[in-house]
Protein: ubiquitinyl hydrolase 1
Organism: Adineta steineri
Amino acid sequence: IREKIKKAEDAKLDRERAKKLGETVVEPKNLSKLPTSFPDDAGSNNSGFYQLNAVLTHKGRSSSSGHYVAWVRRNQTEWLMFDDENVTPVTEEDVLKLSGGGDWHTAYLLIYGPRTIEYEEKADEGASGESNVSAMDTTT
C-alpha cells in the first residue's frame, strides 16, 4: 500500500509542478481509492496516513470569556467555518493560519481521520490494485 501511496503522491506533485510552469496537464481518468481499513477491521487505518478533518478553536483571552468556532473539512479542498448560526466557506490556508495568540483563535481540539488515497488504476489492474497479467511464457 505504501508503494501505491508514494506513486500517487509523486504523480500528483508532478501534475501540480507542470501546472505552475504553464504546461498542459492531463488529469487521470480512472481514479480508484485505496481502502482505508483492513478487510477484517473496519475501524483500522491500514496506511498509517491521516488528514486533519476538523478543528475546534477558542477566540478570546480566557476559557471563561470568548467564543468557540468549529472548522470542518467538507471535502479534499473545501472547509467550512461554523460560528454559531453562521456557516462560511473558508480555504485550507485559513485553517492553517489558526496559530493562536492574544485575541486570535487558539486550537483546542484537532480531529484526524484516515487519509483517502486516489491513484490511477491501470488497465491491467483489478480493484485490489494487483496486476491481472501473468508472466508470458517465452520458452519454445
